[in-house]
Amino acid sequence: MTTETLLDENPCQPAIAAICGLDWPGLSEADMFGAAWGYYFFSIQFRENLELALSLFPEDKNLQRLHLEECDTANLSPYPGIAVAGERLNHDEFMRRALHLTPVDPDTHTQYMAAGERYLEEVRRIDPLVRALSMSSYEDGGLSAVFTAILRAPVFANETLAAFRFFLAEHVRFDSDPDEGHGNLSRHLPPDENVALLWTAFRQLFLDFVPHFATASAEVLVDAV
Predict the structure, then answer these.
(1) Which long-range contacts (CB under 8 A, 24 or more apart) does 172-177 make?
(2) I need a labelling partner for 138 at 20 to 30 A (CA). Which of 132, 161, 171, 188 fits?
(3) Rounded to the nearest 5°, which phi and psi values hold at 219?
(4) Please, which residues bridge with residue 73 across strands?
(5) What is the number of structural domains in the chain?
(6) What does 192-207 look like in DSSP terms, one character per residue?
(7) Which domain holds residue 196?
(8) Is 166 helix (H, G, I), strand (E, B) or coil?
(9) Which of 5, 12, 32, 25 is nearest to 211 (CA)?
(10) 190 contacts: CB under 8 Å, gap ≥ 6
(11) Statement: residue 220 has pLDDT above 50
């Protein structure tokens, strides 16, 4: 089964397509840095959703394996300035350390943290089962499509952004094999239409952290008039 087929069967596909359709190639370095910060907060809720799924289905061997490969794992180690060889860490911790390779001014940091906390509060209010079912929408083609779209952004000589690109490319690799990849470990928990709420919040997260997206969308609307 191809990634395209998996996405076609995913009720979250319109929301996924909306994220992929953002103007990733038009980002500046500052825009891309904002996107990395926004993704960091998504990575927190991703881990929390996986932990929820495992708590709801504790005997699920596939979820147990997925948890081993996404949490407290060395599959992103080593990486200069972030993790030494063999170091085990959660993937959101990798992102947190990556962000701190490039300090931001206090006002920007306060803004980022407030936007991220608003996002986390929103997703944490969603039903735990819906959040658990989100794992297949993420791992079975959804995030690979989004990561591939983000990788269309320009490459910048920035330590944080280099680490972010490494993170994205590695996750595309983790999920790419339809039989042995992470998608196969979550496919037995198909998402329902309620999972689209999480994807809509994910898109809004990028809009909040990357002002260019709102500007680009407004320009498209003006051109269409």
Answers:
(1) 172/144, 172/147, 172/148, 174/69, 174/75, 175/139, 175/140, 175/141, 175/143, 175/144, 176/3, 176/144
(2) 161
(3) -65, -40
(4) 89
(5) 1
(6) -GGGHHHHHHHHHHHH
(7) 3-224
(8) helix
(9) 32
(10) 133, 136
(11) no
Q: How does DSSP assign 83-147, residue by residue? A: B-TT--B-HHHHHHHHHTTS---HHHHHHHHHHHHHHHHHHHTS-HHHHHHHHHHIIIIIHHHHH
- CATH number, domain of 45, equals 1.20.910
| Cis? peptide before 78, omega within 30° of 0 | yes
d(CA 109, CA 86): 31
Both tokens of 158, joined, read: 């920035």
202 and 140 in contact (C-beta within 8 Å)?
Answer: no
- For residue 151, give every residue at least 6 positions away whose Cβ sits within 8 Å of its Cβ, in sequence order, or none: 165, 168, 169, 172
Q: Which residue has the higher pLDDT, 69 or 150?
A: 150
For residue range 80-116, what is the model confidence (pLDDT) as tens digits?
999 999 999 999 999 999 999 999 999 999 999 999 9
For residue 92 the two structure tokens come to 């959101």
Residue type, 94: F
SS3 81: coil
Distance of CA 70 to the CA centre of its chain: 12
